[in-house]
């Protein structure tokens, strides 16, 4: 039996009663951007929505509809990607939070599935704490489960992400087009590892790149060094995705139960 509530599925009278019982609100956030030749543009928000629904079924929480567009400026060399300005994104999400505070929200879970949103969400969380005494948490799945089946979970369009999409929308995974491509070196010793840093003779040097600077196919699951055994993304099955999702849900549900006992605190000033 469902434990939480999906706000958009309630009547206004049901919402009034829900906020009397529950003051922790989850906002799923994603993006619309390229995920290689084998995953859909909506990968991030599809994952955010699926994870939020699984969590909501197991814990007392009020969950909003997913926000499907985020901060994806660095992805705009790939057709179909959508981005908004940082100020517009912050104001939009903050306004949603203020509406929910008006109805009784006392803490927020930003279920973020796109790393590009993190800095803006962190600023929103700081502002909510300062102005209202409200705490926010920002679970990101690749920081909760860091590897699965020996593969790094955080690789964009990689093993774990392919499996998560397969678990919720298997019809959208093009396994026949899944591939790994080598990272594009800039010089003999300077090789981009992620969008935000280079590897230089084993040292990490910060930078900021566009996706096309790193990836020729838009997957960003490239390897800095050739793996001992080539990674076959066709092994990233729905069953693997369900195992990963179950692990994530268990941790997030336990966290929300304990997090919901905290605060709110006194606002600044």
How many β-strand runs? Answer: 10
CATH fold node name of the largest domain: Rossmann fold
Which structural class should the secondary elements be placed in? alpha/beta
Rg to the nearest angstrom? 19 Å
Question: How is this structure best described in words?
Answer:
By secondary structure, the chain is α/β, with parallel strands linked by helices. The chain has two domains: 5-145 and 240-259, Rossmann fold; 182-216, no CATH class. 36% of the residues lie in helices and 13% in strands. The chain is built from eight helices and ten strands. It has helices at 12-21, 43-56, 86-102, 118-132, 141-144, 159-168, 211-214, 238-259; strands spanning 5-6, 24-29, 62-63, 107-112, 135-137, 147-148, 151-152, 190-194, 197-200, 203-206. The strands form three sheets. The chain has a five-stranded parallel beta sheet, with helices on both faces. A three-stranded antiparallel beta sheet has the order 8-9-10, with no helix packed on it. Strands 6-7 form a two-stranded antiparallel ribbon. A hairpin with a 2-residue loop joins β6 and β7 (151-152). α3 runs parallel beside α4. The relative contact order is 0.17. The model is unreliable at 224-229 (pLDDT under 50).
Describe the SSE topology.
Layout: E1 5-6, H1 12-21, E2 24-29, H2 43-56, E3 62-63, H3 86-102, E4 107-112, H4 118-132, E5 135-137, H5 141-144, E6 147-148, E7 151-152, H6 159-168, E8 190-194, E9 197-200, E10 203-206, H7 211-214, H8 238-259
Parallel strand pairs: 1-3, 2-3, 2-4, 4-5
Antiparallel strand pairs: 6-7, 8-9, 9-10
Helix pairs in contact: 2-6, 2-8, 3-4, 6-8
């Amino acid at each position: 039996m469902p434990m939480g509530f999906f706000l958009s599925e309630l009547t206004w009278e049901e919402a009034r009663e829900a906020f009397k019982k529950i003051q922790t609100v989850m906002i799923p956030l994603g993006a619309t951007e390229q995920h290689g030749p084998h995953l859909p543009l909506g990968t991030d928000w599809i994952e955010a929505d699926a994870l939020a629904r699984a969590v909501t079924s197991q814990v007392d929480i009020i969950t909003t509809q997913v926000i499907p567009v985020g901060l994806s400026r660095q992805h705009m060399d790939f057709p179909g990607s959508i981005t908004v300005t940082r100020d517009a994104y912050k104001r939009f999400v903050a306004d949603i939070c203020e509406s929910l505070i008006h109805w009784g929200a006392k803490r927020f879970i930003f279920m973020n599935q796109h790393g590009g949103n993190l800095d803006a969400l962190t600023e929103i969380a700081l502002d909510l704490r300062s102005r209202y005494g409200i705490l926010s948490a920002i679970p990101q799945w690749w920081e909760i489960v860091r590897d699965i089946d020996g593969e790094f979970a955080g690789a964009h369009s990689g093993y774990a992400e392919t499996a998560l999409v397969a678990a919720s929308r298997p019809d959208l995974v093009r396994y026949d087009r899944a591939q790994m491509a080598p990272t594009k070196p800039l010089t003999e010793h300077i090789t981009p590892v992620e969008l935000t840093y280079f590897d230089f003779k084993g040292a990490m040097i910060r930078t900021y790149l566009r996706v096309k600077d790193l990836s020729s196919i838009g997957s960003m699951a490239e390897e800095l060094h050739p793996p001992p055994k080539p990674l076959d993304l066709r092994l990233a099955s729905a069953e693997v995705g369900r195992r990963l999702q179950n692990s994530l849900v268990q941790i997030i549900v336990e966290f929300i139960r304990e997090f919901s006992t905290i605060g709110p605190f006194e606002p600044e000033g």
